[in-house]
Predict the 3D structure of the following.
Amino acid sequence: MLKNGTALIIFLLAVFQIHAQTVIQDGDVYGEWNVNGSPYLINGNITVPSNQKLTIKPGVNVIFQGQYYFEIIGRLNANGAASDSINFTVQDTTGYYLGNHNGWYGFFFNGTSSTQTENSILEYCNIEYSAGSGISCLGFSNLSIENCIIKNNLQYGINLFEFSDIMLDGIIITGNKSGGMSINFSAPQVTNFTISGNYGSGVTVSGSAYGNELTSFIGGIISENNSSFNGGGISVLDDAYVYIENVEIVSNFALYGGGAYCGMGGGIFKNVILSGNTADYGGGINSDSFADITLDHALIVNNNANVYGGGAYVAESSLEIVHATISNNNAGEQGGGIYYEMATLFTNEITNSIIWDNLPDEIYATDVIPGINYSDVKGGYTGSNNIDTDPLFADPENGDYHLLWINFPEADNSKSPCIDSGDPNSSYDPDGTVADMGAFFFNQENMTYIKDNVIINDPVIYPNPAYSDINLKGTSQFEKLVITTITGQRMKEVDINTDYLNIDISEFESGIHLINLYNQRGSIITKKFIKK
């Protein structure tokens, strides 16, 4: 009988633990919240006070019962795990969709009176359904946000004020109703990010940051955001200056600047893609009102302007374009590629670029002739060393605007006229050759190898990256190739009896793959390609 009674007690304790919850009333919070006390039901405004710390463990659910804020003056460490996130949400989410939302008011990191010097951390957290912004910072720089999802908040996903120079990595910001990020007089550093599907600009940057700090976005995507005014993807305003590198800005919508808008602000856009964006003025990018922008190795394709400037719209501002490919953009009236208006007082230069197949025209200028040199412009354009010849893109219909040279290294008509045709006084391409025109250079480093005392010519792979298939030129010296994933999983084996191969990779997973080529002596050359 005692044995059965003990089993019953253990069972009841287990049931109690499964349904354990902790009610948090209005006031200060610190110490530790863990799964044994989860969910934590918040019934008032709560604050982590100065010189105190609250630690939240993986798997905890924090559920706000009404319109309460979570203020952090001291330190918050919410360290979830990839397999066990921390959730900050509301009891009833239906109000968000019905328009009568009564959820919490999000995080407020308040640095105005804080003496905290150690970083607060939000890691692997889901932050959702705030009646304000998901995360707001005022004068608070000691914050790192990593691998968090910030979604479905009534204002912004993240809202920064007054020198809140926080760090963000691996974040997803989506479904927020005022926009993805609002950055005011601050310089956050954002890496490996997705800002997508917000009802407002994906990012709005306004006002200069302290000292020489720059807002930076490196390695990410800004997509499918919808602004009713400026900058569907990103809007840079009022003396703000940004640095953007290795970022795709795609399929956004706005009235001015579907992909990007800069007005009385500016920035450097390096190795960027502006594609599939829509606006009335400046489908890809709109440079307006004393803006100062540099596009460096930019692909601007398949954007649409209902009125002017399918690829770019430039008015009373400076837009320097170096190594760009501007193609297949459309405008309803003029300036399918680029539209210039009232730009006589500003410097607008285009160098080492390709402007091709835009409709209804490549370039339209009302009162200024931009300086265009060492560029390939369809229909020709006044300037130094410009050409008007098909650039021989690899596969533009499938989004591949790399340059072709099928019979490399033979200098025949299979070589794009844009290869080695850029300004010889500009920086050389990474392969040490004269600059190519366009966003992507043709890599000529692959010449010959000597292996096992045998001279082996290195075959050429194109396109790379690739979507559905790859081509190899110069394979006759090999007997077999084997394609593997980067981890060694064998994907395909092909016997070789020709100098040219076309290989279907449509069923491969996205990522880096290796091509191992074997000759008669068993020697191997290994080459890489990326499956998009």
Remarks:
- Residues 95 and 306 are 36 Å apart (CA to CA).
- Confidence is low (pLDDT under 50) at residues 5-18, 447-455.
- The longest strand covers residues 241-250.
- The chain is about 5% helix and 45% strand.
